[in-house]
Amino acid sequence: MTTQNNNLTLKILIGVLGALLLILGIFTYKFYNEEKREKAQLQQEKDLIESELGELITKYDNAIALNEVMDDHLLKEKQRVVVLLDSLKDYEANVALIIRYRREVGKLKKERDRLFKLADSLTTQNAQLATDLDSTSVALSERIVFSDSLKTQNNKLAEIVARGSALTASNIKAEGVRVRNSGKITTTARSSRAEKVRVCFTLSPNKLTEKGDKDLFVQVINPENNLIGDKVSVNFDDAVLTYSGRNKVFYENDALDVCVLVDAVEGELVKGNYVVNLFSGPRMISNTQFELK
User: What residues contact residue 223 under an 8 Å CB cut-off, 6+ apart?
Assistant: First the structure.
């Protein structure tokens, strides 16, 4: 009887142990699956955070490329994101890690929004400044064009006045002459008898010309293309004039008859055609020709 009781007790114990083992196995399997699922969820959350950090870096890169005003600020904030992403990759996913990094991502997003709003504001201001600058440049260009136009008109007007006030001459005539002992001047058309060349002309009346002393210069070029007479050079602002003879007269805006005697040395007065040029200062105002036989 005792043996039967012991066997029954043993069977009961074995049954209870089997049941406990079965229950333990079920709980162990369930815990393993839950832990595996939790790890998968944590890894998925970690991957999501890494993806968000990567997107933040890309957005910073785009913002930096478009905004030169805040490059330094954007670069520094981007570097913070890069460091955080690198550190996240080195850790295994767990609840504490996910909570801490999710909090950091939230801070970074707020800072990104603040910086981007500020960058947009600065970009808008720069665009307005550029528009204002363009408007100012256009106005300045128009003023410069207007000023240049006035300057051109003034220059043209000054040129017209200068031309209008310039001395002119008419009735220019040149001829060979000789001077007698009495001082009387007689004309001659023979080169062998001529001693000088006399050039006579009339200064035309001009009310625009300033009254006063006027220097008049004569060039006489003989048939051998040589300048005769004084052969003296005078300097002007942008020219040098070598003349045969000169005369200074006082001009009062009315017609004025003037003559210039040009001396000649032996051998200068030869047969042929002579060219005579008349100058008021550096400007030629008349010319003529004559012949000695």
Answer: 270, 271, 272, 273, 274
